[in-house]
Write a structure and sequence with these properties.
Layout: H1 13-24, H2 32-44, E1 48-51, H3 58-66, E2 74-78, H4 85-89, H5 94-98, E3 115-119, H6 126-138, E4 140-143, E5 146-149, E6 154-159, H7 169-173, E7 177-180, H8 189-193, H9 211-221, H10 228-244, H11 250-266, H12 288-301, H13 310-329, E8 331-333, E9 343-344, E10 350-351, E11 355-359, E12 361-362, E13 365-366, H14 401-404, E14 408-412, E15 415-418, H15 425-430, E16 437-441, E17 446-448, H16 453-490, H17 499-528
Parallel strand pairs: 1-6, 1-7, 2-3, 3-6
Antiparallel strand pairs: 4-5, 8-17, 9-10, 11-16, 12-13, 14-15
Length: 536
């Protein structure tokens, strides 16, 4: 939402700027963006580059921009590979040469221009490149031994193609704002055909901006605050550009901040807003297709705050969920009421005994006791039963199932059968009284760790505070959504067509926040259910 300016601009200045913008658009079809960017660039003391084929009103944008200022001079030139310095900076002074002075007559040339249009600017050769760079960046021109200040407000550069060659990189970087201008679309074509004659933009003398107006805007813009939300967005965008291979110089980042401050100021605010950052898509691309990528990144990020950015909040929630799971999965050895450590008995129940008994094994085979009255030999016609087993444990070695099967046991009074055919075989094997046992160390009897009350209370307090912060952010987000359409349509520099994707982005952010609030509530419940240490 708009905040009042600490240092007020003239009461009519914002209205004049809006009226100038609308007047500049008179009779133009689908040139809203380049006109907005040209006027904002001039107010911020920056330059605009228009990339596109011939016949797309690039020069007209510059000529109209010139009309927005008074007093203001205009210079226009088409550059070629053979352009000489005299065509841009003026002829050499004959009188100066006679007096051994190498000076140019700059009147009516670029060094004396307020607004300039340089067509096919990347055809600039080395003979004019250095002087052009100094003029664009420092508003100064080296004329012989003297460095002269220039009245330059802004340059609109144009080209049919992107620069090729490292020697033009510095020139390309001097244009903070870049806009691709294509032919009128199919939908706009009927409007283009409906234009009659040369439509001239009308400006009253009172509407135009003076040098004093420009100086006041630029001075006041330096006092516009750049909040943490915007700083965080720019930092994230810088990382994203690096990952995408989009090269952005440190100088350009600083100029971007100045541009955003100017955009906020001219919209009557003393703080840069997320919506001002819509302009970033026109500041960062090196190739036209990169603009759409920056726009999509920004559209997805708009509405997030520095502290409550859903991606950051998600990472916080995930870390809390991991912390809760660690506490829930934590196990400690249980104790009885007297404080004695408990162990897990062979029956699965807790016991204070550290040692218990378990069925012995030989390799993988379980061991058993021999049945009572078991014999190693069956009935003999003369000797009867022979080979009675005296020691059921086989001197502590026990019997495997394979060793039990051939033994003879009494099946009924007077009847004998081998163990493998014995009717009571299964019942015998499952009866623990018939198992050969051995002493074993019992494992600790584990239970969920009882957390210190102070730990649980601290976690609940932090989660409650975080939840309150997110709820506050959600309320701000809902207010943001409610005022979105009016904010964007009232914005001097953001086009109306951004309202729909911005609304989708904010609605997506709201859904993410609702989901995260639900996860935070589950976290509070989870920590609240953790077992606590008993207070003595």
């Amino acid at each position: 939402m708009a905040e009042p300016l600490k240092k007020q601009l003239p009461s009519d200045l914002s209205a004049r700027i809006e009226a100038l913008r609308d007047a500049l658009l008179t009779g133009l079809v689908e040139r809203d963006v380049p006109v907005r960017l040209a006027l904002l660039a001039a107010l911020a003391g920056e330059h605009l580059l228009l990339i596109g084929p011939p016949g797309t009103a690039k020069s007209l944008v510059a000529r109209r921009l010139h009309l927005a200022f008074h007093p203001a001079t205009y210079f226009e030139r088409l550059l070629t590979r053979f352009t000489v310095p005299e065509e841009l900076f003026g002829p050499l002074s004959i009188k100066g040469l006679e007096e051994d002075r190498y000076e140019r007559l700059t009147e009516a040339y670029l060094p004396k221009a307020s607004v300039a249009f340089l067509d096919e600017i990347f055809k600039a050769n080395s003979a004019i490149l250095n002087a052009l760079l100094t003029l664009l960046n420092e508003r100064e021109f080296d004329n012989g031994k003297r460095r002269e200040s220039t009245p330059l407000i802004s340059v609109v550069g144009a080209s049919n193609e992107l620069p090729e060659g490292e020697e033009l990189d510095a020139l390309f970087d001097r244009f903070l704002l870049r806009c691709h201008v294509g032919p009128v679309s199919k939908d706009g074509f009927p409007s283009l055909l409906g234009l009659r004659g040369d439509v001239v933009a009308e400006f009253s003398r009172q509407l135009r901006l003076s040098d004093e107006d420009l100086a006041e805007v630029r001075q006041a813009a330096t006092e516009v605050a750049v909040p943490d939300d915007v700083v965080a967005l720019l930092a994230d965008l810088r990382d994203w550009c690096t990952a995408e291979g989009i090269q952005v110089s440190d100088r350009r980042w600083r100029k971007i901040v100045k541009l955003l401050q100017t955009a906020a100021l001219t919209n009557g605010r003393d703080r840069v807003s997320i919506w001002d950052c819509w302009l970033l898509q026109h500041c960062l691309w090196s190739e036209p297709e990169q603009r759409a990528k920056v726009h999509d990144w920004y559209a997805a990020r708009a509405g997030a705050s520095a502290a409550m950015d859903p991606s950051r909040l998600t990472r916080i929630v995930v870390s809390w969920e991991a912390r809760l799971k660690q506490d829930q999965d934590s196990r400690s050895q249980a104790r009885d009421e007297s404080g004695n450590l408990l162990f897990k008995g062979t029956d699965g129940k807790p016991t204070v005994n550290e040692v218990g008994e378990a069925q012995a094994k030989r390799g993988r085979d379980l061991l058993f006791l021999a049945p009572h009255d078991a014999h190693t030999e069956g009935p003999h016609s003369y000797y009867g039963m022979r080979g009675r087993i005296q020691d059921r444990t086989k001197t502590g070695a026990g019997f495997t199932l394979a060793e039990l099967n051939p033994l003879w046991t009494q099946d009924a009074p007077g009847g004998w059968t081998q163990f493998m055919h014995w009717a009571n075989r299964d019942a015998y094997l499952t009866n623990q009284a018939n198992w050969h046992m051995e002493a074993v160390d019992l494992p600790p009897f584990m239970e969920p760790t009882r957390q210190k009350a102070a730990h649980v209370d601290a976690c609940l307090k932090e989660l409650t505070t975080l939840g309150q912060q997110v709820e506050t952010y959600k309320a701000q987000l809902l207010a943001h959504i409610a005022s979105l359409d009016a904010d964007i349509r009232a914005h001097l520099w953001v086009t109306d067509d951004f309202a729909e994707p911005a609304a989708r982005s904010l609605e997506g952010t709201r859904r993410e926040v609702d989901t995260l609030l639900g996860r935070l509530e589950k976290l509070r419940q989870g920590f609240g259910l953790l077992p606590r240490e008993e207070v003595a």
